Amino acid sequence: MTETVVDLSWEGPTAVVTMADTVGRNTFSPELSGGLVAAVEAAAAEPRTRVVLVEGLPELFCAGGRQAELLDFAKGRGSFDEDDFFRIFLRCPLPVVAAVQGHAIGGGLVMALYADLLVLSERSIYTANFMRYGFTPGMGATHVLPAKLGALLGQEMLYTGRNYRGAELRRRGAPPSIVAHSEVPRTARELASTVAQAPRGSLELLKKETAAPLAERTESAIARETEMHRVSFHLPEVHERISTSYGGAR
């Protein structure tokens, strides 16, 4: 029997989607990515839903790509952006609030940034660590990080691939709400509850309007990133770095 790694529940008009793959550490397994898409789509299809709240484990929101998958890409098997599951928050017809209490690593951070509203933790690590392994960013990261976190800060995160605590991002002027670790769930729920006061029809109209520019710009960014991957993933040192340095938020 397959373990459920993504849970869907409701708190009034707020649909709560929880990624809880403790064994797989909330990496992009088929079970997690497929379960996430199914849960968000089911939440949006339910008439009582007005807002979707997405959360992960208390210490780990999402760890992004799996080592085996990245090694396959380095060997020319598959592509980072073949499956567009990571833009499910953007495609959702209702507003999505991401309660990013735990670490968000690589693709896990990029996926979180596709949410309409975010709440981060002061102490957790947020990293776009693609270049740490030597390959160029994907999933629309080259657009979405500067767009959501600020142009200079976003570019710095892309180039350095280093870890940033939420408290540092707040000092650097990152726009998302960044609160004490224990306050992330409550703050996110209060935000979702405020959003849910509006009529569903109005929320759908506003989401369509605000999501359209990001969808268009990340579509073209992903196409360019895929071309960069054709070169960067095949550099000799990339396979070695993935093999020896993979480890998430170290």
In short:
This protein has 250 residues and is α/β, with parallel strands linked by helices. Helix content is 46%, strand content 16%. The chain has one domain: 2-enoyl-CoA Hydratase, Chain A, domain 1.
Draw up the topology in text.
Elements: E1 6-11, E2 14-19, H1 30-45, E3 51-55, E4 60-62, H2 67-74, H3 88-91, E5 96-100, E6 103-105, H4 107-113, E7 117-121, E8 125-127, H5 141-149, H6 151-160, E9 164-165, H7 166-171, E10 177-179, H8 184-195, H9 200-232, H10 236-245
Parallel strand pairs: 2-3, 3-5, 4-6, 5-7, 6-8, 7-10
Antiparallel strand pairs: 1-2, 8-9
Question: How would you characterize this protein structure?
Answer:
The structure is a single chain. By secondary structure, the chain is α/β, with parallel strands linked by helices. It has one domain (6-181): 2-enoyl-CoA Hydratase, Chain A, domain 1. It contains ten helices and ten strands. A six-stranded mixed β-sheet has the order 1-2-3-5-7-10, with helices on both faces. The protein has a four-stranded mixed β-sheet with strand order 4-6-8-9. Strand 2 (14-19), helix 1 (30-45) and strand 3 (51-55) form a beta-alpha-beta unit. Helix 2 runs antiparallel to helix 10 (236-245), helix 5 packs across helix 6 and helix 5 (141-149) crosses helix 9. The longest helix is centred in the C-terminal third of the chain and has 33 residues, at 200-232. Belongs to the enoyl-CoA hydratase/isomerase family. Pfam families: ECH_1 (PF00378). This is Polyketide synthase.
